[in-house]
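Justification of resources, computational component.

The compute hours requested in this renewal are based largely on the per-chain cost of generating structure records like the one below. Each record pairs the submitted sequence with a full C-alpha cell output. That output is archived, and it is also reused by downstream analysis tasks.
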Amino acid sequence: MSDTATLAESHTEMTELILPNDTNNLGRALGGAVLHWMDICGAIAAMRFSNRQCVTASMDHVDFISAIDLGEVAVIEAYVFNVGRTSIDVKVDVRAENPKTDEERQTTTSFFTFVALDDDGRPTPVPRLSCPTDDEAALRDRAIDERAAQLEAVVERMDDWDGSEV
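The structure output for this chain reads:
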C-alpha cells in the first residue's frame, strides 16, 4: 500500500438506464434502487483509493430533490474527500440524464463512510489523501463544506422538531 493516494485515483462514475423493474407505479426510479447504486459507486471509489476491500460504515442524510424517470439515465459519481486511520469518506452525487435531449439535473447527494479491511476482514490503515491539483483540492474542500452544512441542517431540523408530526 502506498502512503498516499489522490482524489482523482478514487473517481468513479456509473450509469444505470432506468427500466421498469427499477421504478415505482409512477414510472420513477425507486429510492432503494438509487441508494443501492450510490452504495456500490461509493464502495468502488473507496476500494480504488485504498486498494482494499471496503465495507459501508455509514451514510449521511439523503434528500431526493428530483425524480429519475423511466427511460432516463442515472449517472452516479463518487470520489474520496477525506480519510481517517481506517475510514474513507466518499461524496456520491446522482444526476438524471435524458438521453434524447442531453438535459441533465441533479437528483441527490450523500456522504458515505467506508472502512478498509485487511485479508482477515479486520479494519486496516488507509493511505493519506493527496490533492495535487487545484481542482482536486477544490473538490475536497467543497465536499467537506457541503457535508458540514448538510449535517448542520439536519441538526437544526431535529432541534426544531416538537414531535407533533408523529
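The helical segments are 7-10, 31-50, 134-160. DSSP finds three helices and seven strands in the chain.
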